[in-house]
Design goal:
The structure is a single chain. The protein has 173 residues and is an alpha+beta fold. The protein has two domains: 121 residues, SH3 type barrels (Roll); 48 residues. It is 35% helix and 28% strand. It is built from three helices and five strands; from the N terminus they run αβββββαα. The protein has a five-stranded antiparallel β-sheet with strand order 4-3-2-1-5. The longest helix has 46 residues. The radius of gyration is 25 Å and the shape is elongated. The termini are far apart. The model has no long low-confidence stretch (mean pLDDT 86).
């Protein structure tokens, strides 16, 4: 029999999550909210750590070099803010925590790739996440059309005002 905590944890888990391992190069699609707007930002880098794989608090730490500076982000895989995780490359590693990659740059930071079926690994279909992403795209398109209509109305009002000023100028001259 499950405890109350286990039932609540299972309720918040996503139905399907991509199998991510240490040494993978991934693209994480994350929802970012800025004011009243939402957008999807992509963070691509090397997975240097995976934590608590079976839990609803499973987490990956992704590292990348941006403008010569190392940037690390931790993502909760079951978070509603993480829309999608894509595995682009899989490398051969013998550890779970690749902390030594922080000291490596250039050729020494290269990892030997392993052949894997990219389509099979990334073919996790979470209907709720896909519906959420489609809803975001529709909302962005609706906002763009509303903005275009408002701009057209504003341009028409300015054109009418310019015509009225021109008519008044012609009448006085």
């Amino acid at each position: 029999m499950q405890s109350v905590i286990q039932k609540i944890n299972e309720q918040y888990k996503k139905k399907a999550v991509v199998d991510v391992r240490s040494g993978d190069t991934v693209r994480v699609h994350q929802k970012i909210r800025e004011g009243s707007k939402e957008r999807v930002q992509i963070f691509q880098g090397l997975v240097i750590r995976t934590d608590l794989k079976g839990s609803h608090t499973s987490r990956i730490t992704v590292r990348r070099i941006s403008s010569g500076i190392g940037v690390e982000k931790s993502f909760l895989l079951h978070s509603p803010l993480v829309v999608k995780v894509e595995v682009t490359k899989r490398s051969k590693v013998r550890r779970n925590y690749l902390s030594y990659m922080r000291d490596r740059t250039g050729k020494s930071a290269r990892m030997s790739g392993v052949e894997f079926d990219r389509d099979a690994v990334n073919s996790v279909h979470d209907a709720a996440a896909e519906a959420e992403e489609a809803k975001l795209h529709e909302q962005v398109a609706a906002d763009a059309t509303a903005k275009a209509e408002a701009k057209a109305a504003e341009d028409a009002a300015l054109e009418a005002k310019a015509d009225a000023v021109q008519a008044a100028h012609d009448k006085n001259a």
